[in-house]
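Pinned message: reference record for Outer membrane porin, OmpC family
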Amino acid sequence: MEKSIVLPAVISALPILAWAQSSVTLYGTVDTSVAYVRAAGQGSKTSLEDSGENASRFGLIGNEDLGGGLSAGFTLESDIFPSSGLGGTTNTNNQKSGVATAMFNRRSFINLTSKTYGELRLGRDYSPSYWNVAKYDPFVHEGIGSAAVRDLTDTGITGVRTSNTAFYLTPDTLGGFFGEVAYGLGNNPQNLPDGTGHDGNYAGFRVGYIGHGANVAIAGGKTTYLAGDVRVLNFGGTYNFNIFTVYGFYQQAEVGGTASQTQSTILLGGMVPVGVNAVRFSAIEQHIHGDSSLDSQQLAIGYVYNLSKRTSLYATYAFLNNHKNAKGGLQETSILAPQPGGNVNGVQLGISTLF
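Predicted structure (tokens):
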């Protein structure tokens, strides 16, 4: 649930008419869980984890009605790690060298929106291809049941968010069809002697359709690096049969250069409502092209018990099978990674509340 906040000192400094057409909204999620994970060859670990059902965050959304169907606004959103109180990191240039601690690391952009022509965003936001990763995973890419079994290392820089980027989103007047394009800059001098002037430049897209119970989209992105470009292409969707919802997703990620590698991910899953609660489940296959010894499969099932519209309890069980040289972990290897070829089991119990 989102709440509009009023700042008296600010109100007194602004014309009454202008404030009446403007708003600032505070929103967020706090999500914490206890996770027990057992990994072959590494023993077991019990830990307090964050974001098992929803990503813990807080944010501000501002909007001003400019009239004539035009509005201006901003979004500022930050990671929260309730178990430790820490914030998150960002990437300033879409390159390995740009990692930095930031207050609004998740989303940070200004936008201009027209009901007729669509929306322009400038700043940092989710890359178009990541929307498919999150929306077409029953576990919303969070917790030990998520599709984050293992990502190619170099795709992580722009695999979720891109900085220094212009995003264009189509208006909500296309009969259920929608689209997005994005172009980002690495902010390097163009004529660097080592040839890395275009490193961190990003281009991506997403097009899809929502209607008649279906939600489908295809998306892709490319980040330029002298050492080898990173490319991502994915497509997926959900279909709501009323008594249950089916999820499907496919992604191919490629890292170029001398150590080129291509990884494909396939997910099939579902969500079954149980009154106001829900059972969710998924099966995931990850394959490294040319080396099946690095493949892995994951099965996950979970239950969400809604205490209210804002607060829920959840429980998830996941099992990960790694092939001979694979060493994927549940959600993130930081929880507990196995020895190569080892399997992983995990249980996560948590609580999530929205504000």
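Pinned by admin. Summary line: The helical segments are 8-12, 16-20, 128-135.
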